[in-house]
Amino acid sequence: MDFTYLESRYDAMKTLVRRLNETYRYASLLGVEDDSRNWSVTGAGVNIGSRGVGVGTGFVARVFDDTGCAEYSFNELSQDRVEPILQEIASRLEQAKAAIPSGIEPLPTPLPADEPCRLKKQTPCLIDPRVLGDQAILDRLGGVRQRGLAIPGILDVSVRAAYRSCRKIFLSRERELDQTLTWMTGAVVAMAARGEEIKDAYIPFSNLGGAEVLEKMDTGVEEACRVALELLDSEPIPPGVYDCVCTPDVTGMIVHEAFGHGVEMDMFVKDRAQAREFVGQYVASPLVTMHDGSAVREAATFFFDDEGTLSSDTVVIDKGILKGGFCDALSAARLGVVPTGNGRRESYERKVYTRMTNTYFEGGTATPEELIAQVKDGLLLEMPTSGMEDPKNWGIQMMVSHARQIKDGKLTGKIYSPIVMTGYVPDLLKSIRGMGRDIALSGSGYCGKGHKEWVKVSDGGPYILAKIRLG
Amino acid sequence: MKDDRTDKIFEILDTCGADDYLLTDVQTESAELFFVRHRLDTRRSKKTNKTFVRLYCAGTNDQGERMRGMTDVELLPDTDEETLRRKIAEALRASEYALNPFYPLPDASTGREEEQKDFRGMDLFAAAGGMAGALFEADTGTDSFLNSAEVFATRRTVRIRSSKGTDVRYVRTGVSGEYVVQSKVKEDVEMFREFSFDSYCPSELRRQAQQALAYAADRSVAQRALPTGTYRLILSGEELATVLSYYVRRAGASMRYVKYSTWEIGDDVQRARDGQGQALCLNLVPSVPYSDEGISMKELPLLQDGRLRNYWGPQNYSYYLGVPATGSYSKIRCLNEGALSESELRREPCLEVVSFSDFQMDEFSGHFGGEIRLGYLYRDGKKIPVCGGSVNGNLLQIQDRILLSTSGYVSSDYEGPECGSFPDVAVAGTM
After folding, report:
1. pLDDT, position A197
2. Of A51, A77, A451, the CB nearest to B194
3. Distance from CA of B351 to the nearest CA of A (A)
4. What are the structural domains of chain A?
5. How far is residue B210's CA from residue B206's CA, in Å, rounded to a whole number?
6. Region A236-247: what's the mean pLDDT?
7. Cα–Cα distance list, A98 to A73, A102, A148, B148 (Å)
């Protein structure tokens, strides 16, 4: 993808950062140029769209004045507009000053580090979807859908793909960073109905790169249809605590929702994370080693974050012991630690928070079959659907589509749905007694902070065997 | 929003070969304040100008039937003419691959709606600061306190024009945000709350924050002592609205068109007539005066005594179904008068859940549920605060037995009875 817009605004960006640094104690500018496209073939029709979560071309300036950190987001920049933007920022800071409720003092925040650095990198993209073309992609998706619709009992099959390529340029007094990132995702959703009740099964796909993800999507539709039909005969699960084997995508949801959010260190600043008190202690089984960062290639891989901090590979849990969290630059300055490159924005229009990137458990030694064979009376959990964090109290709320019954080390064919996973995070992590050999990550979804601020993440790990409370 | 660039875009659109087009200009300004305890974390503001164009092309399918392709493109505010022409040409070409059965654009409409009176002339930082002040005013107790807060004031100026002659515009301002309350009376706990208002109402936010602070103190002493079983469940406010959203989703023209919903107008979709519950009367309330296709939006009857009155949706699916296009809705007004007084509502035994970590409603299966952050178990003459465990109900099995409270509730998503009583709901407890 040829990103010419930022190229044409580069000199104006440099001028603006220079002028801001003449006025403020610290100033930086992030420019984002986006190219996004999504395709879908569903019962509702064929669709091509250009809007996506967090997609947008524009700029965000960050400055530090006597009060602390302030930001201004905008989407028009030229040399002629530099002075009006400077005036706009000054005017808005005055308005904000007048509006702060009485008695409210600034949160002390040291200036973020600004070590000299220059970088220009891009992630690989083997098959550019724009070159492949809309028709070829829609034909491919349509072919997958037709295979699903041919299966008796299937009400509908939706097949989707989405791509985002963006260039980000970060400028400060000492840093000039430039990266181009490309990912592509897909999904197959099969639906089966009995009366008014509709059951659906969802299989996601993702890669750091381009339309090569379509190769993966050729597999999966038959499985989605089979599961949707099976779910018509599913039963509610008797609530209780079960020995559970989790597929890598369910493991990923545990990694991300149950533990990952709790080590986002902006939560440490707010006294909102129990994890802060457990650094250096066992929080999980010795089988567990957890990472976050760009050491793997998935949809959330990048070279620098939205505050201009280089990405890294953070070991969060090492053989069961909590080593620490990951951090954005402002929270790092407030906590007196080194930022880990986890300061991310939904878009140039939103605030930076500490966010996960690619988050996963390391693999162990067992095969999935060996883990299932260890279960006398339990369940195989498949297809995560949603989850919610609780960093303060480490409560678990996660939902998976279904659970398959295991008796005497074998799947019986009985299926339960839906499944709500609940309980206390360390109880679950400490109960892990089997860790699969191979890991898989999925980056098809987005992660919210609370109920907003959606950013692309991936998560995963191996099959695991643990004790989990289900309802 | 009439300028040289807009003239140029219209000139290109009129000559590019598109069958139709829809052009939307959106100017957005915001003021955002972020707090940690009673300290200012960050100030943010935003000013963006965006132009979105939907391009429609004509086509036919293999059977010779009339088809229509559509796709969209965003045009950056300072794009040169050559790039404008290229972007529009590319989008028009893409629309040829996204052919669907023909539907016309909505008939021309014109109109203009001014900003809500509350916000006219109000500086956005003043609005955000006023709402933040309401949160701090509520934070006066000793058992619980405000941990952190984010307050947003946003003004959107929207103009929608089409090749059919539509030209509508409106200004919409709102205040929204989230806050976390914390208590350390016994356990160190927190509760997360969101708010969204389309009027300037610091007093309502103060009231809600006071209630949240009281709930946090209760959660701090709540016991993980909820037995597994089935309960008469009381849901309130946003969770009640979320359950009722099942009927909204199922009545969407897109759901009906793809046959995910089999509901016909006039169907007794709630099947409450012979049951022991209330037959629901629900209206849909627009949150903007014009839809994204420029359709003038009105309050729309959805259910009358449990029977479906209307589908809702955009032009394409409504045209396919042969019903008027209404635009898309998210706010529900429940017109039922409550059947249960305060004391009847909480008659023992029952479980009232006032906070979930994330409450979900599946419009396909009818399942609803989530993990319990705070509930009250009414049993043996006591009101026992409980936490942990999860609710796992199915609306289809109990919708004929829903009873609503006489007390009321208002938010940007829901207006109507505050609480609903749902019988025989499965709960995975903590003991």
Report:
1. 82
2. A451
3. 16
4. 4-113 (no CATH), 121-230 (3.30.2290.10), 240-470 (no CATH)
5. 6
6. 94
7. 20, 10, 60, 21
